[in-house]
Amino acid sequence: MKGKTNSSLGKSWRIAVIGGAGHVGLPLSLVLADRGFHVTIVDTDEARMRQIQNGDFPFLEQGGAELLAKLREQGREISYTSSYKEVESCDIIIVTIGTPIDEFLNPSTKAIIRCFESLLPYLSDRQLVALRSTVSPGTTEWLDRYLRGKGKAVKLAFCPERILQGQAIQELQGLPQIVSGTTREAEEMAATLFSSIAPELVYLKPMEAEFAKLYCNVYRYIQFSISNQFFMIANSAGLDYYRILEGMKKGYRRMQDMPRAGFAAGPCLFKDTMQLAAFCSNEFSLGSSAMLINEGLPLYMVDQIARQYELSNLTVGLLGMAFKADSDDPRSSLSYKLKKVLLFRAKRVLTTDPHVKGDSELVPTEEVVEKSDLLILCAPHAEYKNLDSKNKPIFDVWNYYGRGGLI
Ligand SMILES: NC(=O)c1ccc[n+]([C@@H]2O[C@H](COP(=O)([O-])OP(=O)(O)OC[C@H]3O[C@@H](n4cnc5c(N)ncnc54)[C@H](O)[C@@H]3O)[C@@H](O)[C@H]2O)c1
């Protein structure tokens, strides 16, 4: 199942990364270009491609701006296009587009289907198509049948991305890469490609690999939910969860990976848990419970505040609107869910974030602190470590300030 790095590489391969301007696609494109491959980013977001082309890395990603600058300095230009036609001349097509869930919390297959409908005229049997987006189990085999039905016998692989957003550049080159293919040839070509960046390969069958990727994310989501549930139980009993957690962990090896309580959401964990639930006909009670707990945490916090304060008289300040610490990504952030609930229940809600762009309602941190009666630490960004809270009460569910999780 495990394999060592294969060093004989097809460096002359031309690679197209579909969705290459995104959080998964861009770091991968840059790392592949750094390894000497000729990379073409194919993306529907032309504005973002222009931004990258101008040397501006579009989101927070450790080492991303530096790697982009290095490639530009070395004249290793990446090509950018929104036209699928460019794919025709490529040897490898890596697909990294978003794979959302729909309003019924089921995987939305539209994006992948539309993408492949558009790609069809430009695909040929010599090419490798490597799916890298997170997909519902069975998607790769379904796609294989679909493409063959259209007369396209491309080599098809599923090689999931498992990076931590924000640390992609480093993790792409440090994590074992799961490789699977619908044929031996597809698997071998994908292995040759990924052995150029990953230290180790792990071989699975396509559906095993699809499950492995989902299980990794769902496991994390469930871990967070356990801590969140424990937090709410302790808090409701009038106890500081963090005193208990510290006591549990001290010198006790088996508890070391227990996470803190806090907002668990973002573009992947929630939707991947729902993808798995949909796959097993919504009979994934553990996943559904984790979702209710994690999504319920902000609601619980509002109720706790309302028990202690006349909420309708309070101005509440939310610190950190990104979905996690030190990120600029507001996608599926629970901070916005909290804001929505508070807009109905509090006198006023003020929001701030040092990284999130494009939200015209954000105000400077100092203004939020100054004007709020109560603060909620939503995303524990490094910028808030030495916050002057002017003695305003802070609901710090993360225990970021080490004063416990109680308000
Ligand atoms: N963000 C992460 O940390 C992470 C980690 C592992 C896996 N994933 C998975 O990777 C996939 C992509 O996630 P992301 O966070 O990079 O999303 P994203 O929205 O940041 O990037 C997707 C990119 O695809 C482009 N795009 C969408 N449809 C397109 C099309 N038809 N043709 C060409 N370009 C198109 C978008 O413009 C965007 O630039 C998802 O399946 C996600 O679950 C994400």
Task: Using the coordinates above, name the CATH class of the largest domain.
Answer: Alpha Beta
Output the helix-strand order.
EEHEHHEEHEHEHEHEHHHHEHEHEE
* Main sheet strand line-up: 1-9-8-7-6-5-2-3-4
Task: Give the number of helices.
Answer: 13
Helix content: 25-40%
Distance between the termini: 50 Å
**Overall number of strands:** 13
Average pLDDT reading: 95
Outline of this structure?
The protein has helices at 25-34, 46-53, 64-73, 110-119, 139-149, 168-172, 184-194, 206-236, 241-249, 269-279, 285-308, 334-345, 365-371, and strands at 2-4, 14-18, 38-42, 79-81, 92-95, 128-131, 155-158, 177-181, 200-203, 315-319, 348-352, 374-377, 394-395. With 407 residues, it is α/β, with parallel strands linked by helices.
Q: Can you walk through the features of this model?
A:
The chain has 407 residues and is an alpha/beta fold. The chain folds into two domains: 2-207, Rossmann fold; 217-395, NAD(P)-binding Rossmann-like Domain (Rossmann fold, 3-Layer(aba) Sandwich), CATH 3.40.50.720. Helix content is 39%, strand content 13%. It has helices at 25-34, 46-53, 64-73, 110-119, 139-149, 168-172, 184-194, 206-236, 241-249, 269-279, 285-308, 334-345, 365-371; strands at 2-4, 14-18, 38-42, 79-81, 92-95, 128-131, 155-158, 177-181, 200-203, 315-319, 348-352, 374-377, 394-395. It has a nine-stranded mixed beta sheet with strand order 1-9-8-7-6-5-2-3-4, with helices on both faces. Strands 11-10-12-13 form a four-stranded parallel beta sheet, with helices on both faces. Helix 1 (25-34) links the parallel strand 2 (14-18) and strand 3. The chain binds nicotinamide-adenine-dinucleotide. Nicotinamide-adenine-dinucleotide is lined by residues 18-19, 21-25, 42-45, 96-99, 111, 115, 133-134, 161, 163, 165, 267-268. Nicotinamide-adenine-dinucleotide (NAD) binds next to helix 4.
